[in-house]
Amino acid sequence: MIQSSSLEQQLKGRDFLTLVDYSKEEITYLLELANYLKKQQRAGKMEQPLQGKTLGMIFEKSSTRTRVSFEVGMYQLGGTALFLSKEDIQMGRGESIPDTARVLSSYLDGMMVRTFSQSVVEELANYASIPVINGLTDTYHPCQVLADLQTIQEIKGGLQGVKIAYIGDGNNMAHSLMIGASKMGMDVAIAAPNGYQPDPSITKKAQSFANTEGGTVLITDDPQVATGKADVIYSDVWASMGQESEQEKRVEAFANFQVNTELLELAKPDVTFLHCLPAHRGEEVTSEVIDGEHSAVFQQAENRLHAQKALMTALIG
Ligand code: CP
Ligand code: NVA
Question: With a threshold of 0.90, does the pTM exceed it?
């Protein structure tokens, strides 16, 4: 295992609700650990620092990647994961968040939660005595961005000064990318239609991290402006989970925000296309792009496993 006793101590027992709470040094450590665990797995050498530990996973929204990568990750690290859907637990019938947090803390060693409001993960974390990991809320998706940073680092050889352009909704992905990228000294440009731009208070945070780390943050309503000289182009669905009723309205609002070959040509010739998935081909991205030579979306999806194994090892191990 990677040795850094002060960072190990710093991370043990912590919650992971947003990358806002994590320093560049801590994120760098988690990425190094993720790379190490990936290499070990490739070499058939499985380390099991979480033997005897149990992760509870509360899901109030659907998931393929998050559910499977956490469950498999926990298994590979020697522990166990419990899938707790909203329908199965009393929280879904109105048991309070403080009671749920206190009870689950007495059985589990860590809790992963996918829900709507960021305030739910915050309240769970306030009352739980075990680490709480945000597996996606309407505001943030920090686990995804840990895997995204790992992927960008693998492909571009580093993060400092790398330009990422996010094209689409100013949603949970845009927020977490802005925070993660600015913390790592990247240049981040978000192109979103007016009315769908990121939360200004989160943009302000990203801007201040960028000032400290030597990066930049740009918010625009012009995808072509955002894409110029980009090393990475990122997209996400136009209607997120919980916004299904707005689908039609959003397809109209985002019509000019599709990532297609024409847009890709404005970026650097070796641009990488990323998408958190699930994707809607023909809406936010064309098949030509997501299934084309610039796309690294499956490498990115695989890295969810390695990045989260690093996270669980650091927080729960
Ligand atoms: N990217 C992501 O979080 O995928 P799932 O919704 O399938 O977990
Ligand atoms: N913005 C998307 C991300 C899915 C991983 C959603 O919240 O549905």
Answer: yes
